[in-house]
């Protein structure tokens, strides 16, 4: 029902070092993130400035404009495309009258992750990232709340005491979650050891590029794929048996996105470490997306950060069914090593599988596939 959908105004600030195209893509992506979180963008506000205003992020005039917009459209939430400092968050909330929720892109992404996490591991990883994100913002929260409860008397003392208590509670919880993750990590290492000796392929790429669809097509399985950002949070590993009885493992991964909150990257590091153990990386890109170049930049810088940019890889220009001949020629000039495929329509998949199999080194590794791993593979 329309009245139940959260209505959102998105706000962006283009600093002069950002190209208009880059900025525009980021804003379009922010709308998709809002949609993926179950909200609906009803208005958008943009500002170009040399740099953000320390106290309020956007300028005073824009903030007034935002206040008017929020009131006239009766909107529930304002989402900023960049991270807000605690003080900025508080000042903006106050300017908007305290009734409207104000969040930034990181909080929105964390929210989507929280709603998608299914396995115990993903839930812990997301909660950890949320707490780490929230911790420095607690400081802003308390004076704000005490003001709401009226007057300034006692606002500092109890506020600070409460803040300390809250910080301790959050710290304890963070420590507990980290301990749990270490345990899960150990189990993961054992599982990965069992998989040694098998040829492992990881699918990496920007969110919505088609990784899960490709995993399904290559291994004839049914991992969830959907036209939402971050459809996959609990990556699956599927096995594939080639005509000679050799078994390969394919692992799907969480998609990347620009400005991915670093707490999330940190807590998902162990999940991504599986990719670090792989023999071959398939980089999946959405060839039909106008920002494919930016997407690949984000993916490559994440690979560098994960220190797996030295691995054998194949670049896949997916969704080839959606592009015209002109785009195809332009992309093949730009990415001469890229392979056009369509994970959903099947183009290029047989050839891709042949290419993958040709990279499996000869040797006796295939002999190690005794019965086994089935259950651990289908986690
Ligand atoms: N037309 C077309 N659509 C595709 C193709 N491959 C995937 N899609 C669609 O693109 C959307 C995203 O696909 P997913 O496989 O979920 O993408 P993903 O990379 O796993 O995304 P995340 O899990 O969010 O990171 C879905 O709606 C798919 O049906 C393709 O080759 N052609
Ligand atoms: Mg997926």
Task: Kindly describe this structure.
- With 379 residues, the chain is α/β, with parallel strands linked by helices.
- Helix content is 48%, strand content 16%.
- The protein has 13 helices and ten strands.
- Strands 6-7-5-8-9-10 form a six-stranded mixed beta sheet, with helices on both faces. Strands 2-1-3-4 form a four-stranded parallel beta sheet, with helices on both faces.
- Strand 8 (280-286), helix 10 and strand 9 form a beta-alpha-beta unit.
- Helix 1 (20-36) packs parallel to helix 4 (105-116) and helix 3 (86-95) crosses helix 5 (120-148).
- The protein is globular and about 70 Å long.
- It starts with 5 loop residues before the first strand and ends with a helix.
- 34% of the residues are buried.
- The model is unreliable at 142-158 and 366-379 (pLDDT under 50).
Give the SSE layout.
Blueprint: E1 6-15, H1 20-36, E2 39-49, H2 60-73, E3 77-80, H3 86-95, E4 101-104, H4 105-116, H5 120-148, H6 156-195, E5 199-205, H7 211-219, E6 237-241, E7 247-251, H8 262-267, H9 269-276, E8 280-286, H10 292-305, E9 313-318, H11 325-334, E10 339-340, H12 349-358, H13 374-377
Parallel strand pairs: 1-2, 1-3, 3-4, 5-7, 5-8, 8-9, 9-10
Antiparallel strand pairs: 6-7
The structure holds guanosine-5'-triphosphate (GTP) and magnesium ion.
Guanosine-5'-triphosphate is lined by residues 205, 207-213, 225-227, 229-232, 255, 318-319, 321-322, 342-345.
């Amino acid at each position: 029902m329309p009245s139940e959908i959260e209505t959102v105004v998105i706000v962006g600030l283009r600093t002069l070092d950002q190209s208009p195209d880059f900025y525009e893509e980021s804003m379009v992506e922010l709308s998709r993130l809002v949609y993926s979180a179950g909200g609906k963008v009803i208005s958008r506000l943009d500002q170009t400035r040399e740099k953000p205003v320390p106290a309020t992020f956007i300028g005073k005039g824009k903030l007034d404009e935002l206040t008017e917009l929020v009131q006239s459209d009766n909107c529930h939430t304002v989402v900023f495309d960049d991270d807000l400092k605690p003080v900025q968050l508080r000042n903006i909330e106050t300017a908007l009258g305290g009734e409207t929720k104000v969040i930034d892109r990181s909080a929105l992404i964390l929210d989507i992750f929280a709603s998608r996490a299914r396995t115990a591991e993903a839930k812990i990883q997301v909660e950890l990232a949320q707490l780490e994100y929230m911790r420095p913002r607690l400081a802003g929260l308390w004076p704000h709340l005490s003001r709401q409860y009226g007057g300034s008397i006692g606002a500092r003392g109890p506020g600070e005491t409460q803040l300390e208590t809250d910080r301790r509670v959050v710290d304890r919880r963070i420590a507990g979650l980290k301990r749990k993750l270490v345990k899960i990590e150990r189990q993961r290492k054992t599982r990965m050891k069992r998989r040694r000796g098998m040829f492992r392929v990881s699918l990496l790429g920007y969110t919505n590029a088609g990784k899960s669809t490709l995993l399904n097509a290559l291994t004839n399985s049914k991992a969830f794929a959907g036209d939402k950002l971050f459809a996959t949070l609990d990556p699956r590993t599927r096995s594939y048996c080639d005509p000679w009885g050799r078994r390969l493992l394919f692992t799907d991964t969480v998609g990347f996105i620009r400005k991915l909150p670093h707490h999330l990257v940190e807590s998902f590091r162990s999940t991504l470490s599986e990719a670090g153990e792989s023999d071959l990386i398939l980089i999946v890109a959405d060839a039909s997306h106008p920002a494919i170049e930016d997407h690949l930049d984000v993916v490559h810088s994440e690979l560098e950060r994960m220190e797996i940019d030295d691995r054998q890889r194949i670049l896949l220009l997916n969704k080839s069914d959606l592009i015209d001949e002109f785009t195809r020629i332009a992309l093949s000039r730009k990415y001469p090593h890229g392979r056009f495929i369509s994970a959903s329509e099947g183009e290029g998949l047989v050839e891709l599988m042949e290419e993958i199999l040709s990279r499996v080194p000869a040797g006796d590794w295939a002999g190690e596939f005794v019965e086994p791993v089935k259950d651990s593979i289908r986690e």
